[in-house]
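Inverse folding, one chain.
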């Protein structure tokens, strides 16, 4: 959490803190859970490897006696957040009262270029797109695009990666994916990712960003998915002061009864102030 969150905030609020050295945790990851259980801990942060190490240890334990029902904020930071270890951690500790809604992403803000983030992320999904003969049509990602944000570039890249992988999962091989980056309004920039695959059912649209919501269609029920990717994306976007939503693409927005042509995910973020 750094000196502000771990030292200044706790002194100001006059609350107790348990500190676990990295070496002690690496050798005995169960100490973290024991401290949270015995002291009825409410807030704790860890890098991704902490949750992953605990999950690996828990997999080899037949039983454990923890009470994690008081845990209100399970912070995750210091790198890209991957949903699989978090899903495993939450599942293994569900009998101990751990609530997956407590997962909270942490950030390190710096000025960055949305167009550059987009280009880097697209390179990560090109091999899979090529393997499935899915075309990627890009707009607004040229070098002249000066869309500057105050953001955690690693986390925003994860949002784009989650949305692009969702689009690839939902789109048939002959349906290209469109990715557009540009100015939305005077103080906002926008990334829109759309595909010509199945539309999102109305009942799924209302719940698509809920944690662990996997019912519905391809957008929420991938292979091995338990519904954290879109929930994490929403949390990251909102922590940056932005908004994210999903919608179906129609021939004309004026006619909401027309047959959808596919689906679109849109992220809007505030630009760096002058």
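Residues assigned per position:
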């Amino acid at each position: 959490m750094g000196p502000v969150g771990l030292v200044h905030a706790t002194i100001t609020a006059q609350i107790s803190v348990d500190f676990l050295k990295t070496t002690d945790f690496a050798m005995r990851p169960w100490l973290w859970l024991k401290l949270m259980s015995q002291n009825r801990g409410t807030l704790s942060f860890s890098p991704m490897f902490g949750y992953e190490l605990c999950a690996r240890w828990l997999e080899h334990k037949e039983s454990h006696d923890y009470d994690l029902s008081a845990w209100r904020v399970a912070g995750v930071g210091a790198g890209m957040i991957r949903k699989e270890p978090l899903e495993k951690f939450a599942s293994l500790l569900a009998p101990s009262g751990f609530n997956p809604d407590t997962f909270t992403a942490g950030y390190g803000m710096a000025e960055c270029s949305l167009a550059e983030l987009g280009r880097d992320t697209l390179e990560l999904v090109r091999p899979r797109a090529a393997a499935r003969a899915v075309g990627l049509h890009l707009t607004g990602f040229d070098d002249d695009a000066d869309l500057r944000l105050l953001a955690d570039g690693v986390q925003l890249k994860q949002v784009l990666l989650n949305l692009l992988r969702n689009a690839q999962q939902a789109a048939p091989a002959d349906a290209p994916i469109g990715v557009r980056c540009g100015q939305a309004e005077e103080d906002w920039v926008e990334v829109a990712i759309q595909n010509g695959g199945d539309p999102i059912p109305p009942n799924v649209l209302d719940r698509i960003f809920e944690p662990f919501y996997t019912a519905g269609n391809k957008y929420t029920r991938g292979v091995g998915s338990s519904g954290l990717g879109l929930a994490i994306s929403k949390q990251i976007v909102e922590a940056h002061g932005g908004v994210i939503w999903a919608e179906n693409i129609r021939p004309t927005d004026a006619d909401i009864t027309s047959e959808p042509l596919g689906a679109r995910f849109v992220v809007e973020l505030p630009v760096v102030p002058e």
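The two ends are 29 Å apart (CA to CA). Strands lie at 43-47, 73-77, 103-105, 110-113, 136-139, 148-151, 177-185, 188-195, 243-249, 262-270.
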